[in-house]
Amino acid sequence: MSSQNLFVTVDPDSVSIAPSLPAEVSQTLTALKTLIMAVNHNLQVAIGQIHNNTADLATANNSLQNHDGGITQMEGQVKALENIISALAGAPQGGPKLNLPEKFDGSNKDKAVSFRVAVSHYLRVSYPQASVEEQIAFIISCLEGKAHEWLEPYLEEDVVNNHPVAWLHSINGFWLQFNARWNVQNKTENYRAKFKTLKQTKSVQDYYKDFQTYSQNLGYNDISLRDFFYDGLSLKIKEMLMAQDYDHNASNVSLENLADKALKIDQRLEQFQAQHKGQTNSSGSKSGTTLSTGALGNVTRDKLTVGDKVYMIGPDGKARKGTISKIGKNAKGMSIPTVKWNDGTVVESSFKSLKKDSHPVDPSPVQPKSSNSGPSPMDLDSAGKGKKPIVCSTCGGKGHYASQCPSNTYSGYEAHLSENESENGDL
């Protein structure tokens, strides 16, 4: 018997037929041998088919496993898509709620651009999945007055008469028609005219916003824009810039630098005024706000020029009076006034130490002594009337006493009268 992979065949030769056997037995044994051979053959064929079927089953099993993996992957993708769809569907409810855009009535064409920006932004954030028809319907609902009247003939043609108007079914086409009807014509020239006359009348922030709007596309460089911006600032802001020795013409100062500086000054002024609302200064003057050195580090001063009468308080507490004869510059480029004092001396001083004199006194001419003894005619006249001229011992001015000297208000010192001055005052 021989062996194969999965079965053992029966050897037909194992059945021996002896010659001495009867013919009938020999025939039976021969038939048995033939049968054994047929069985071996059939078993071999069957086992071969079983092998083939087993391979097919393995292939089919592998295919099924692959299909199972594909189905599992598809299920994951479907689930991910469901999550995305759910998130998109719930976005408007879960996101921030925006206020509806302000309606446009066509009365002010300057608001047309702002209206388009506001509506487009609202639709993009709140309704990103809206169709073109829905977007245009929403835009139309935000129009009123003249702006809606402009649309009515086209809406009648499109909706009532059923004759489609192409640009009522296209976002880009709708905005093209809107811009052609409501945008300001010659916008650049209009802005140029407004830019040339622009001045700060409210806050620096409002002024800067208008300045940026009107200066668009006018072709000015940064230095020119910086100078235009400074010229339009209010006098109060310019005074504060000058008090802080801020040179807006410096090469390293840009429009943005100057605007930031002006904005900070304006904010500090607003804070100071809010903190001291309803208060008056110590001298009981009118309700103007006086800035102290402690509050902002600067004091608002009178603008002085050549020929102005000025005074300064000396170490003795008395006012020294004179006239500004010229204004020059020192080594640092700062302005320095030269003062001719009433005593005849000429000295360079500083604007910080000088104040404008509201009670100026001209220097008294020196009268030559008379060779004749006796009083002069004026002295006789005064003596005859029993009066003497009133001269202030603090500032040297005439017409007021030392106790009424205006320099006392500024110096903080109290003037002291001598006995003779007191007697003259009583007279």
TrEMBL record:
Alphabetic keyword roster: Metal-binding, mRNA processing, Zinc, Zinc-finger
Biased composition (Low complexity): 277-294
The CCHC-type domain, residue ranges: 392-407
Signal peptide (UniProt feature, chain positions): none
SMART domains, A to Z: ZnF_C2HC (SM00343)
SUPFAM superfamilies referenced in this protein's UniProt entry, alphabetically: Retrovirus zinc finger-like domains (SSF57756)
Positions of the UniProt region annotated as Disordered: 273-294, 351-386
InterPro entries, per the entry: Retrotrans_gag_dom (IPR005162), RTL1-rel (IPR032567), Znf_CCHC (IPR001878), Znf_CCHC_sf (IPR036875)
GO molecular function per UniProt: nucleic acid binding; zinc ion binding
Coiled coil region boundaries: none
Pfam families (alphabetical): Retrotrans_gag, zf-CCHC
Gene Ontology biological-process entries: mRNA processing
Keyword field contains Zinc-finger: yes
Transmembrane region(s): none
Name of the molecule in the record: Transposon Tf2-7 polyprotein
